[in-house]
UniProtKB/TrEMBL annotation:
Naturally occurring in which organism (per UniProt): Propithecus coquereli (Coquerel's sifaka)
Domain UPAR/Ly6: 45-124
Keywords: Signal
A Pfam family assignment: UPAR_LY6
Superkingdom of this protein's organism: Eukaryota
Gene responsible for this protein: PATE1
Signal peptide: 1-21
InterPro entries: LY6_UPA_recep-like
Name of the protein this chain belongs to: Prostate and testis expressed 1
Length: 126
């Protein structure tokens, strides 16, 4: 894989971290508050599937495991498609201030992020 393309992917992911923190008005809230019997709020802990690199038709090739989302994080799935709609790369994990975005143009690719906090490993089937 081309080094400049991987560097560009890293820059894109950093941009999404910054961008997602600035999108305060979203349809899907990533933080759920549960009130315990003693009356004090408690944040729900969610475990997420993690995979840093997965190419179409292959198993996870880097970073396979499970991460625990903090109160500011959600489970996420990122997918990168070629402009003709062909899947190119998938990655999963925990992301702070996650925001759902669809078909953001990045060079010759389209990028989609999906976020969830509904239950453990909710990002496996997004």
């Amino acid at each position: 894989m081309d080094k400049s393309l991987l560097l560009g992917l890293l820059v894109l992911l950093c941009c999404f971290r910054v961008l997602s923190g600035s999108l305060l008005r979203r349809d899907n809230a990533v933080s759920e508050v549960i009130v315990q019997e003693d009356g004090y709020p408690d944040q729900q802990i969610v475990q997420c599937r993690m995979c840093h690199l997965q190419f179409p038709g292959e198993k996870c090739s880097r970073g396979r495991g499970i991460c625990t989302a903090t109160t500011e994080e959600a489970c996420t799935v990122g997918r990168i498609f070629k402009k003709n709609g062909t899947p190119w790369l998938t990655f999963m994990g925990c992301l702070k201030n996650c925001a759902n975005v669809k078909n953001i143009k990045w060079s010759v690719y389209l990028v989609t992020f999906m976020c969830c906090r509904g239950h453990d490993l909710c990002n496996e089937n997004l």
